[in-house]
RNA sequence: GGGCGAUUAGCUCAGUUGGUUAGAGCGCCACGUUGACAUCGUGGAGGUCACAGAUUCGAGUUCUGUAUCGCCCA
């Protein structure tokens, strides 16, 4: 036994254990199994970078669920994989290319760039999988998928083909968020707003042929003057008077329930509004009439006639009351353009420079064009005031450069019916979301039913499977279409085509375009289509398109595989809240569309992990914690337990982050300042270390500090506690003989343990079932430490060295440990497996009441089921009495500062029934409290030099003989403190009970309880007062 | 502007349907180490439950409002 070390050496053990699991194929799922299925798909981590603690939490929680279900006898599949993360990964690789080689993707070309990204992917996938494996996640590693691999690609093609055929995919010109740096559209979700200093420019457009009395100019204002080159109208409100009325009414309503400060402000606004009405309204009405009369304006600099239109987008209360309309470069103007049927003029090239429509400004970048346009307008005398103003500017999350609204051809998925299907699935609870409050966000987002733009002008991703040719006459189109029909007959179910209008040719005729979608990645079919003059769309699909298919694509869909039949739909999806809409909602609708069933029945949204300053963790801030660093320092089980106990209902957890000095292992709190430093000196040992920001050779040569959190210390200590308790148990299993036991005749401490096990098993099971991982972890921690170790094991010590009791005690304690290992295994797989292995050598057959053979792995052992027959609340109450007496004796000892090795005589007054139960336990007072019980029962009296503590709740008085130890001052201090506490409580209760309405209105049992409790306190107080008198006489 | 959430001990967090004196871990103080464990044990100090109202015999818990912080959407 001496070979079992006093610590669990995770660094040496974890790999061996993981290897043993792999060799035994413990986590491999068999679709042919007759066991009921339980499956989970991993939220595929981005190959953009390595995992941090957020992923650590996500995957720990999944593994807890998965391991438990596996132990419960389900054929369990946890499908692992990674996500190609289109724009994010390409952006990272492009940025590196720029930094390290000063090249753009265009210097490299499509194929070479994609090659580089694949290299990146291979590197990070390996890293990510390595991180997951070290955390102990029990994925089925034989089934690793990647969203860009051939299996997933086939699913993407099949889905696109299907939606194209159903006309749920269409092509349209839409205003998109254009990233001029990456030269791609980015989704709304990839845009963030930043407030910057800018200007608000006022300028004038001349009216063409104004009638007498009509204004010669219209004044408009904008923060982006260069967009005037793309203006196609100026709008004025169709009913400016009513619009002003409405605004005023709104202000007055606010005024009616405003406080004084707000009222003053509101009154000012109303005043200003009335002034504006006097000054501006007549002209706005006049302009409205001019618009109705078809008056036009001359757009300066490019000399283009543009319309004056009446549209509600113009706000009479703002600016001049008139607004310029640039439909191709502003989302609101785009809406106006659609309503008013205005031309849409794109003035930008894809790189953000002005195109030919910019006339004299063509080729300039936006900032340069802005200056030039302003100067030119000034020269023409058309420029008015220029105000300073803070401007909310959209930026691309990927390149951190400003977004330009840009009109581009895009493929869209029509969302009306698909979104509805995903809403219905949640509304009728085929998919349940936990915590339930997230339902609202999910439903609100889907209810907008905004069509989903899926084109991305990128090179990394699933190429859009559309081939097209445009500029055709109707006849040409018909001819080509029939050629394609013939081709389609040769390749059944592989080709779908559609004719759309394309544009207008020089003669003013509408031209046609033909779009062909090819179902499978088949070079012959593609070559045949290309031979007809069609070309493949250069764009790729939004990365979420392939992730939306994840639960069925990973199982082989569209092929009808055994895996799909056995494991779809999956059971539960555990993820973070920020992708509830982008990912979860889309998986639901795609699952319904493709397979006809929801992809999972439950979704659990877990908290986010923030750093000590309340900020989300990320590499770019320097506060990201790598799970590997935590594992190196504290072990995988500590990482997992530490994370699991954080996963409470309340969202988001702060986790203060520290640098670990590589020289002296001191933990140094991270601050905003030091987390940005490339290197620093350890405040403890003074030696320098580097951080992730190290750039210079000098910094890089220093040892690097890991970024960890001491929050895992508690968990590490718990692992060690379990290890050592197990070690003790096994040290005492020599000569173990499996024995059938009659539970009813076992001593109270054994029945107490069995009863507690029954309760804890039930609570833990329920908690995990309800995704209350924090609760499960806490209950197990408290049970293992405070009950199993602190009481059961301590009590077992004398029994294990007593031959007459040894065998029973061995059987029960082995069973207790066995059950604890099983319960803890899903959270702490390594240490439990290691102990299980050792335990098996001493007690290969174990269990209460009937020992049975156990298997080689706790991972594949059965998860405990609460044994109701073992639960005994009477026993638990009585044992609690014992615990309280122990605590009372310890308290007296501590207050008297009595050395642990000294044994104290004690006398315990209790009821006759308690006496019966406590009599056999008297030896344990010695073991747990160093007390020798000299008398026990109703007739017990105090000692001559007595210290007394009453336990009114259980009707017990504890007396300790202080003859040899008495420290009168200390005892007096203890008693006086107690007296103070009691007096306070008594006053409180007397007040409560003298309150007439409490006595008459509160339920009788509550009042009765208060009365009894007061009486108990008063008796106690009297006793204390007497003890004090007695002691004072001895002074 | 709309929605969601948070605010409890120095720090990080629990607190089930309203009912004794609001809990844990870390940190702090005191004492303790020849045996399972100092990654430990025993005891202790430490809280106006953000603020203001309301409901109630009784509010950390229910309702309304305010403040501060965070996230999502526009």
List the helices and strands and how they pair.
Elements: H1 10-23, E1 37-41, H2 53-71, E2 75-79, E3 81-82, H3 86-101, H4 105-108, H5 110-135, E4 145-146, H6 150-165, E5 169-179, E6 184-186, E7 191-206, E8 217-222, E9 233-236, H7 240-256, H8 260-292, E10 296-299, E11 304-310, E12 322-325, H9 331-340, H10 366-379, E13 383-396, E14 403-413, H11 416-427, E15 432-434, H12 438-447, E16 452-453, E17 455-456, E18 466-472, H13 474-490, E19 495-504, E20 510-518, H14 523-531, E21 535-536, E22 540-541, H15 543-547, H16 550-553, H17 562-567, E23 570-576, H18 580-594, E24 600-606, E25 609-611, H19 627-634, H20 636-644, E26 653-655, E27 658-660, E28 667-669, E29 679-681, E30 688-690, H21 697-700, E31 706-708, H22 713-731, H23 748-769, H24 773-800, H25 803-824, H26 829-842, E32 845-846, E33 852-853, H27 873-896, E34 904-909, H28 912-918, H29 922-929, E35 931-937, E36 946-951, E37 956-961, H30 968-994, H31 996-1001, H32 1004-1034
Parallel strand pairs: 1-2, 3-4, 9-11, 15-24, 23-24, 25-26, 34-35
Antiparallel strand pairs: 5-6, 5-14, 7-8, 7-13, 9-12, 10-11, 14-16, 17-22, 18-20, 18-21, 19-20, 27-28, 27-31, 29-30, 32-33, 34-37, 36-37
Helix pairs in contact: 1-26, 2-20, 3-5, 7-8, 11-12, 11-18, 19-20, 20-22, 22-24, 22-26, 23-24, 23-25, 23-27, 24-25, 24-29, 25-26, 30-32
The structure holds one RNA strand of 74 nucleotides.
């Amino acid at each position: 036994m001496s070979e079992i070390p006093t610590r669990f050496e995770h660094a040496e053990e974890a790999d061996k254990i993981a290897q043993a699991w792999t060799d035994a194929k413990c986590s491999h799922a068999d679709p042919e199994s007759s066991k009921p299925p339980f499956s989970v798909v991993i939220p595929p981590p981005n190959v953009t970078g390595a995992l941090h603690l957020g992923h650590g939490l996500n995957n720990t929680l999944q593994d807890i669920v998965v391991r438990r279900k596996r132990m419960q006898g389900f054929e369990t599949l946890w499908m692992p994989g990674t996500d190609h993360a289109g724009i994010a990964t390409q952006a990272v690789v492009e940025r590196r290319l720029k930094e390290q080689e000063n090249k753009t993707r265009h210097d490299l070309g499509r194929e070479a760039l994609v090659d580089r990204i694949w290299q990146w992917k291979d590197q990070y996938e390996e890293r990510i999988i390595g991180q997951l494996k070290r955390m102990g996640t029990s994925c089925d590693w034989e089934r690793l998928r990647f969203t860009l691999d051939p299996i997933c690609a086939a699913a993407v093609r099949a889905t696109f083909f299907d939606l194209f055929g159903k006309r749920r995919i269409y092509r349209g010109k839409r205003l998109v968020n254009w990233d001029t740096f990456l030269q791609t559209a980015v989704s709304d979700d990839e845009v963030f707003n930043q407030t910057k200093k800018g200007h608000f420019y006022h300028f004038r457009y001349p009216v063409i042929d104004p009638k007498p009395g009509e204004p010669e100019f219209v004044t408009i204002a904008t923060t982006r003057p260069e967009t005037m080159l793309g203006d196609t109208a100026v709008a004025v409100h169709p009913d400016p008077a009513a619009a002003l009325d409405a605004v005023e009414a709104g202000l007055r309503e606010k005024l009616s329930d405003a406080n004084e400060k707000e009222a003053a402000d509101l009154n000012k606004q109303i005043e200003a509004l009335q002034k504006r009405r006097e000054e501006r309204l007549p002209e706005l009405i006049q302009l409205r009439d001019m618009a109705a009369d078809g008056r036009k304006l001359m757009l300066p600099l490019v000399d283009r006639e543009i319309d004056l239109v009446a549209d509600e987008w113009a706000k009479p209360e703002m600016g001049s009351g008139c607004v310029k309309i640039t439909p191709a470069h502003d989302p609101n103007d785009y809406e106006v353009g659609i309503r008013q049927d205005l031309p849409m003029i794109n003035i930008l090239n894809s790189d953000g420079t002005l195109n030919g429509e910019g006339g004299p400004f063509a080729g300039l970048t936006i900032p340069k064009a802005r200056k030039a346009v302003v100067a030119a307008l000034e020269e023409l005398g058309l420029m008015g005031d220029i105000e300073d103003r803070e401007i909310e500017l959209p930026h691309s999350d990927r390149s951190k450069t400003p977004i330009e609204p840009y009109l581009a051809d895009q493929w869209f998925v029509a969302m009306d019916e698909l979104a509805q299907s995903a809403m219905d699935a949640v509304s009728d609870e085929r998919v349940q979301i936990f915590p339930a409050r997230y339902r609202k966000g999910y439903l609100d987002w889907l209810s907008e039913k905004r069509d989903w733009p899926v084109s991305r002008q990128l090179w990394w991703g699933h190429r859009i499977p559309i081939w097209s040719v445009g500029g055709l006459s109707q006849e040409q189109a018909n001819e080509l279409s029939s050629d394609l029909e013939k081709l389609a007959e040769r390749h059944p179910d592989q080709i779908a085509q559609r004719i759309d209008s394309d544009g207008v040719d020089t003669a003013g005729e509408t031209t046609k375009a033909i779009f062909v979608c090819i179902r499978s990645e088949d070079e012959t079919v593609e070559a045949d289509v290309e031979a007809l003059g069609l070309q493949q769309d250069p764009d790729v699909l939004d990365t979420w398109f392939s992730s939306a298919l994840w639960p069925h694509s990973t199982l082989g869909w569209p092929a009808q595989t055994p895996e799909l039949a056995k494991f779809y739909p999956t059971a539960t999806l555990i993820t973070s809240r920020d992708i509830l809409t982008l990912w979860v909602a889309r998986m639901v609708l795609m699952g319904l569309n493709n397979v006809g069933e929801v992809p999972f029945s439950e979704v659990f949204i877990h908290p986010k992990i923030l750093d000590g300053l309340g900020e989300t963790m990320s590499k770019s801030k320097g506060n990201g914690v790598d799970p590997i660093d935590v594992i190196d320092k504290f072990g995988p089980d500590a990482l997992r337990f530490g994370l699991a106990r954080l996963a409470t209902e309340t969202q988001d957890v702060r986790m203060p982050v520290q640098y670990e000095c590589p020289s002296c292992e001191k933990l140094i709190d991270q601050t905003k300042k030091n987390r940005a430093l490339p290197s620093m000196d350890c405040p403890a040992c003074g030696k320098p270390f580097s951080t992730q920001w190290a750039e210079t050779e000098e910094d890089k040569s220093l040892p690097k500090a890991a970024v960890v959190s001491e929050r895992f210390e508690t968990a590490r200590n718990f692992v060690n506690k379990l290890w050592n308790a197990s070690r003790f148990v096994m040290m005492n299993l020599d000569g173990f003989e499996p024995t059938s036991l009659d539970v009813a005749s076992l001593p109270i401490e054994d029945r107490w343990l069995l009863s507690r096990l029954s309760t804890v098993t039930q609570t833990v099971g329920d908690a995990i079932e309800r995704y209350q991982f924090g609760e499960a972890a806490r209950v197990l921690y408290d049970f293992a430490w405070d009950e199993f170790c602190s009481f059961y094991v301590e009590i077992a010590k004398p029994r294990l060295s007593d031959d007459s009791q040894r065998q029973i005690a061995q059987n029960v304690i082995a069973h207790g440990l066995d059950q604890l290992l099983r319960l803890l295994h899903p959270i702490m797989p390594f240490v439990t497996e290691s102990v299980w292995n050792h335990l098996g050598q001493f007690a290969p057959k174990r269990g209460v009441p009937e020992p049975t053979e156990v298997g080689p792995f706790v991972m594949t052992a059965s998860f405990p089921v609460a044994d109701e027959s073992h639960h005994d609340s009477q026993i638990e109450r009585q044992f609690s009495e014992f615990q309280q007496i122990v605590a009372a004796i310890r308290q007296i000892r501590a207050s008297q500062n009595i050395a642990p090795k000294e044994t104290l005589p004690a006398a315990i007054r209790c009821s006759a029934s308690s006496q019966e139960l406590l009599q056999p336990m008297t030896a344990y007072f010695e073991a747990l409290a160093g007390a020798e019980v000299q008398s026990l029962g109703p007739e017990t009296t105090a000692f001559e030099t007595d210290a007394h503590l009453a336990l009114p709740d259980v009707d017990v008085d504890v007396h300790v003989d202080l003859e040899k130890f008495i420290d009168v001052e200390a005892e007096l201090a203890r008693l006086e403190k107690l007296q103070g506490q009691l007096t306070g409580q008594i006053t409180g209760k007397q007040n409560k009970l003298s309150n007439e309405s409490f006595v008459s209105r509160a339920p009788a049992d509550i009042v009765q309880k208060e009365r009894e409790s007061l009486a108990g306190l008063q008796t106690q107080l009297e006793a204390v007062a007497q003890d004090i008198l007695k002691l004072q006489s001895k002074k």
